[in-house]
Here is the input.
Amino acid sequence: MTPQEFRTIFHNGLSKQNAGLVQLLGLCPLLAISTTVVNALSLGLATMLVMASASGAVSGVRHFIPHEIRIPVFVLVIASLVTVIDLLMNAFVHPLYLVLGIFIPLITTNCIVLARADAFASKNRPLHSVVDAIAMGLGLTTVLVVLGGVRELAGQGTLLSGIDLVFGEESKQFVLHVLPDYQGFLLAILPPGAFIALGLLIAAHNWRKARAERRVPIAAPMPA
Here is the structure.
């Protein structure tokens, strides 16, 4: 893989084809679990790990899968990997596992995971496929974390609330009380608040993109 290919893949995953802001895929976990930074980051990293593993596996066996049955095979591969992640989280971060609940198994049906397996991994080499999956996963995780941070700050006045679910009771000291004595804003941590916050993020992304396009100079026509 050349440096230019690496940069292009990461640019697509983080910005140009961002799953949360451009393709609008994986909105179920985006809106449901992004109530705090910890929840959002945990689910984002789990999704990225599944995507990278699934893309690498699909790319490795792409020449042996008949085109007609590729989707069931891809889903089977993804479901197997999600089961492994689900069991590991249940074993090692059980309190967080209980909070994330059904959204860990639902990674199997996340559109972005299957979409990258079918659209990219099934047509490219394993290294390119894994890098693409990591880039797409990072793009989705970034949106999740930003959305979770905005909602947690507006809803509770804190950041990193629930970090003890991962690192134990002693880690509660790392919770940032940005707005002390804040009474909270219930709408921010409810589903309507997620829609509003995501809409603002999409609007900001589109505004930045339009502003960047206006800055690009238009080449003058060649003289006849």
